[in-house]
Structure formats: structure tokens, C-alpha cells
């Protein structure tokens, strides 16, 4: 067991190094740095070859932020850069570059030995990623010339390149390119979804009419779903009253749920649709309060990010305390992601503030567990804590919230909870306090010192009888020879 704490410490040191590397910061690449700026950061000790959290490294982030060709080439020319490194979704740089439609960098990567036969973790090939880019015959031709099989390349759902690309087409004539390569207007995926189904995602009525004119089927798929199931679904999906009315004009039933019991009411609620769309739903006998097969209601869908007016609209036909199979209510969803105004509305409508999740979290646990640092994040937490306290939900002071908060790497959040009276010296299930974790993970000694100033006890040892000083010695980010640790003895 002693070995396990050393493993934790080595992992902490790894994560610390990741957090310090400027090349893992999307904001850095969004500013389109020059070669000189990149070299200056390397001189400071930032490693351009180091893989970052989630499989995102500097070269990949530079590509995804559309940095200049010369900048990307300069990076790829550096010693230690592997163009076939395994990144997010088990993809190499070439797959991501293809999705961006950046042919010059694609050509550069292939010259540098990039593999063109990689299938990612979703079963998608290079050609399938060309389908995610803007329609460009040159990009497709390049992929085909480098081994892509446009007829047989399919993803896990059995969707081919043309089916994947159709929702993004603005000109139906581009289909002629696919047909010239051996694909067919009758192609479908494993569930029998064809060109019309996938085109609905883009909401382009002109394209849909063109497909119908070409004889493309609008019939339900093998699961019994019609094209309404594809409204608001997928990347860049759109929902408009014109689209709904057009689909209905084809004889399709808007009240037909999808294979998971989800109706257009769920889609409209999640999209924050207009009153005009909700009137269409009601006029077509779609129940705005009907749950899907996982017991999610339209109100729950709206509660994630829907505005107050939308929630008021759905409260007329939804039970505020209906709970899905994951133990979540509309109030739980709102606390996780929505505004204080939305949370307050649901409570005033009778939302149960005492609800507990399947994981044993109350609403405070949901709030801290879903926290993401950003603009107004702390203000939102303060407002929601105030609302919950005003509604007589007592904050647990046993330390569990503090340990959740520590994982968010936000000292302001920690300070807020400590000020609320949570036990700063409470241990988690592994027998560690947040001071232990700070000593393991801190980028510098200051966080440890500030926690002690706030009441953290440096005399408490880990389950392995390790002191704070022992943990600091194992933290590679802190050089104890140059650090004053006298505060540990006060």
C-alpha cells in the first residue's frame, strides 16, 4: 500500500507539469502566436512536444486554431515531434487537419510520414473526417489518392462519407461528386437512415426538396423513426418552424417519438425554441410533458440552460419533481448548469430542494461537482448557495464538498467553502486532507501556506504516516532547498 501513495505523487507531478505548459493553453494558440513568440516560450521551459490533458498537445492545438502554415511547419519540423502521435479520440494530426479542410498542412503531414490508414476511437477514417469539413473536392481527392476507400469507408453506425457530409452541403450538385465515385442516392446506415434523414439535421429546406426531386426516400428507418427524429440532432443541427412544416407537408407524423421515446418537445425544449414552434407541437398533439424511455421530460431538457420564460412555459405541462432513472430532476439539472433565476423559479414552483442523486449528492454536491472555472462562476455559486440556504437546505460541513472543490483547481472556490464553515481538516475515503493533496500537487508552496493560514493542520499525517514535509519533498514542482518551510513549525 505504501507504493500507492508514491504512484499518486508521481501522477500529481505529471499533472502539475501539464498545467504549467503554455502550449496546452487554447487561448495561447487562439492569439495566433508568431514563431518568435513560440521560441520565447520554449526558452522559458515550455515543452512543445509534451502531450497535454485529454490527448491535446501544442501542435494539435495550433492546427485546430488555424494558425499560419509557416508556424505549423516550424512546429512540425522540431526534433521530437511525432506526426503519428496518438491524440484525442485516438487520432493523429492528419485526421484533425482533414476535419479542418486544411489541404496544405495535410500535404505537409503526409510528406513527413503521417499515416493515412488510422481509424479513430469512433470507427472513423480520414475520409469520414473530410466529410466533416466544408465541401472540397480537392480534400476528398487527396484522401482517396492516399488510400481512402470512398465506397466502403463507414463509421460505427454504418454511415458512409456521403451520408456524413450531406447535412453540411449548401449545393446539391456536390452530390454528383459522390455519385461519380460509386456511391448511391439509396445508401443507408445500419438503421436504414438515408440521405434525407441526415440532411434534415442541417435544416436546409432547398437541399431537402432537391433530394426529394431526385427520388431520395423519406420513409421511416428500420427503427420506425421518421425524419422528425433528426430535427435538432447532430453537429450544427437546426430547428425552424419552416422545417417542421415542410416535413409535415410530406406526410410525416411530427408526433412520432424516436427509438428512445424522445419527442419533438424534448428537442424544442433543449434548443430553447420559439413560442411559434411550441404552438406547432401543441397543434399536432405532441404532449409537452411526456417523458422519454429514460424518464427525461422536456422540462428537464430545458432546465440545463433554458431561460426563465421557457421554463415557465413548460411548467404548465410538466411535473417539477419528476425524476428520471438517474435520480435527476429539473432542479438538479438547473443547479448543475443554469442561472440562479432558473433555479429560484423551479424552487418557487415546488421543486424539492432535498433531492439526493444516486451517487448520494445533495444539491450542494451537484453544484460543486458541476463547477467549471470561468466568468461569473464564483458569483453564480454564491448566488445558488444563498438560494439553497434561504430555502432551508443546510450545507454539509463534513468536508466532502471541500474535497470536491479541491479537484476543480480554483482557490477562490475553496476559500468560499472554508468561509462557510466546512471542516478544512476533514479526511476523504483515502485518509487525506486537502492540505495533503495541496502538498502533493501544488505548483508552489504558497497554496500550502495559505491553507494553513486558513486553519489546515500541518500536524495531521496521511494513512501512510507521512507528514506534510514528506509530501512536499516528493512534489517535483517544489524545490525545498530554495523554499522556506518554517511556517510548518508554527
TrEMBL record:
GO terms for biological process: positive regulation of transcription by RNA polymerase II. Pfam families: Ank_2 (PF12796), Ank_4 (PF13637). GO terms for molecular function: transcription cis-regulatory region binding. Residues 1-19 form the signal peptide. SUPFAM superfamilies: Ankyrin repeat. Gene3D superfamilies: Ankyrin repeat-containing domain (1.25.40.20). ANK repeats lie at residues 260-293, 294-319, 326-358, 397-429, 430-463. Keywords: ANK repeat, Repeat, Signal. InterPro entries: Ankyrin-SOCS_Box, Ankyrin_rpt, Ankyrin_rpt-contain_sf. PANTHER family: ADA2A-CONTAINING COMPLEX COMPONENT 3, ISOFORM D (PTHR24193:SF121), ANKYRIN REPEAT PROTEIN (PTHR24193). This is Uncharacterized protein.
Amino acid at each position: 500500500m505504501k507504493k500507492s501513495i508514491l504512484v499518486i505523487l508521481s501522477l500529481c507531478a505529471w499533472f502539475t507539469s501539464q498545467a504549467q505548459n503554455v502550449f496546452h493553453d487554447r487561448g495561447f494558440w487562439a492569439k495566433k502566436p508568431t514563431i518568435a513568440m513560440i521560441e520565447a516560450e520554449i526558452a522559458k521551459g515550455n515543452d512543445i512536444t509534451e502531450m497535454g490533458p485529454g490527448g491535446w498537445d501544442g501542435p494539435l492545438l495550433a492546427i485546430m486554431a488555424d494558425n499560419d502554415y509557416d508556424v505549423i511547419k516550424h512546429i512540425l519540423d522540431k526534433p521530437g515531434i511525432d506526426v503519428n502521435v496518438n491524440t484525442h479520440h485516438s487520432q493523429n494530426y492528419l485526421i484533425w487537419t482533414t476535419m479542418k479542410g486544411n489541404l496544405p498542412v495535410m500535404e505537409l503531414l503526409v510528406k513527413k510520414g503521417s499515416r493515412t490508414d488510422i481509424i479513430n476511437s469512433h470507427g472513423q477514417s480520414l475520409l469520414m473526417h473530410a466529410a466533416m469539413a466544408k465541401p472540397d473536392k480537392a480534400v476528398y481527392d487527396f484522401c482517396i489518392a492516399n488510400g481512402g476507400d470512398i465506397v466502403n469507408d463507414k463509421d460505427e453506425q454504418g454511415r458512409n462519407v456521403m451520408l456524413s457530409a450531406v447535412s453540411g452541403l449548401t449545393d446539391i450538385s456536390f452530390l454528383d461528386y459522390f455519385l461519380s465515385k460509386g456511391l448511391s442516392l439509396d445508401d443507408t446506415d445500419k438503421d436504414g437512415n438515408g440521405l434525407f434523414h441526415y440532411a434534415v439535421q442541417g435544416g436546409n429546406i432547398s437541399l431537402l426538396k432537391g433530394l426529394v426531386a431526385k427520388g431520395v426516400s423519406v420513409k421511416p428507418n428500420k427503427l420506425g423513426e421518421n425524419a422528425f427524429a433528426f430535427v435538432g440532432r447532430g453537429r450544427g443541427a437546426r430547428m425552424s418552424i419552416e422545417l417542421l412544416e415542410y416535413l409535415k407537408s410530406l406526410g410525416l407524423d411530427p408526433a412520432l417519438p424516436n427509438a428512445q421515446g424522445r419527442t419533438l418537445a424534448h428537442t424544442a425544449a433543449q434548443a430553447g425554441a420559439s413560442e411559434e414552434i411550441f404552438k406547432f407541437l401543441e397543434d399536432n398533439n405532441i404532449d409537452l410533458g411526456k417523458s422519454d424511455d429514460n424518464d427525461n421530460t422536456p422540462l428537464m431538457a430545458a432546465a440545463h440552460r433554458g431561460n426563465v420564460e421557457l421554463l415557465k412555459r413548460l411548467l404548465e405541462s410538466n411535473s417539477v419533481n419528476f425524476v428520471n432513472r438517474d435520480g435527476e430532476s429539473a432542479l438538479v439539472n438547473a443547479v448543475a448548469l443554469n442561472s440562479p433565476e432558473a433555479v429560484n423559479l423551479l424552487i418557487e414552483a415546488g421543486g424539492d430542494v432535498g433531492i439526493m442523486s444516486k451517487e448520494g449528492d445533495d444539491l450542494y454536491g451537484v453544484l460543486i461537482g458541476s463547477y467549471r472555472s470561468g466568468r461569473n462562476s464564483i458569483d453564480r455559486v454564491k448566488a445558488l448557495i444563498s438560494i439553497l440556504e434561504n430555502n432551508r437546505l443546510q450545507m454539509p460541513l463534513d468536508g466532502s464538498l471541500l474535497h470536491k472543490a479541491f479537484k476543480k483547481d480554483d482557490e477562490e472556490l475553496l476559500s468560499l467553502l472554508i468561509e462557510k464553515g466546512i471542516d478544512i481538516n476533514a479526511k476523504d475515503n483515502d485518509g487525506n486532507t486537502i492540505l495533503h493533496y495541496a502538498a502533493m500537487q501544488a505548483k508552489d508552496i504558497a497554496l500550502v501556506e495559505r491553507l494553513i493560514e486558513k486553519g489546515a493542520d500541518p500536524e495531521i499525517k496521511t494513512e501512510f504516516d507521512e507528514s506534510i514535509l514528506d509530501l512536499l519533498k516528493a512534489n517535483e514542482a517544489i524545490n525545498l532547498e530554495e523554499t522556506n518551510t518554517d511556517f510548518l513549525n508554527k
